[in-house]
Amino acid sequence: MYRSNVVKSNLNPVWNEVTLDLESTCNGDLDKAMKVMVWDHRRGGKHKTMGEFETTMRGFLEVRAAGDSLEFSLMKVDKDMGNVVVLAAEYVKGEGAAESASGKEVEASNGVDSVASAAPEKNPKAPPKPEFVDYLSGGCQISLAVAIDFTASNGDPRQEGTPHYFHPPESKEWNDYEKAIFAVGSILAKYDSDQKFPVWGFGAKYNNIVRHCFQCGSEVEVEGVQGIMDAYRGVFRTPLTMSYPTKFTEVIQTAASYARHEQVRPTCALRFYPKVSVPFVFVNKALISSSYHLSRSVVTTGGISRGG
Asked: Was domain 141-306 assigned CATH 3.40.50?
């Protein structure tokens, strides 16, 4: 997969000239089908597709045979959105030389077979910084792990209005945690290929011992977002006592151990808690330590007030 530079505020953009490695782009097959997509870049990251077309590397090289520019129709749901014009293209062999559009030989500038295309820009810019979707497109595996706050700062779960309060079944209303788990979990779960997630709790006391990371539910991993919901609800059928303090360090370390065992990266640890005082210094140290060899993302849901 290749991503071009971004040309801002221009309805007729001219992208940078680029040299593509044939082996990584089309497995060395000039006739392998390729899809080219054009996007309207949005600062928020939700880019809007403008259209697409299909061709091959050999299709790009036809600009040489034509002796002029080559146009491809940009289509969006069977609607013609305009044209993408290839101004120049040439096949550059890794060993020796290759023939250019003018019939003269050009010296290869790298050690691999490649195709150079598009139009040169006067002031070429640095490649764009990869975004989340680029890592996914490149084959990066993501594993979702969920941690839920059961500390006493949530209030008495039997009292209406507290985050853990369960409404009567006939009301069909969810508490704050159920809403957050479903809303955020439904988004992040889509990026986890096996749809199996570990669910942990922290801050509860069992047998007079405060547990800063414990398994929620009877299974090490649950299936789907509904499994997360069921594991969360099931905790309140156990003899827990909501306690203090709020500590995430053990959760982060457990997530790191889980990622190493599963050999996936990055792990996305999703934490749910209300507005509490959080010991950020210890959390940051744990994140730095656990992320030394593994990539880690932490998504938090709930209000936070920084502790000293």
From this structure: yes
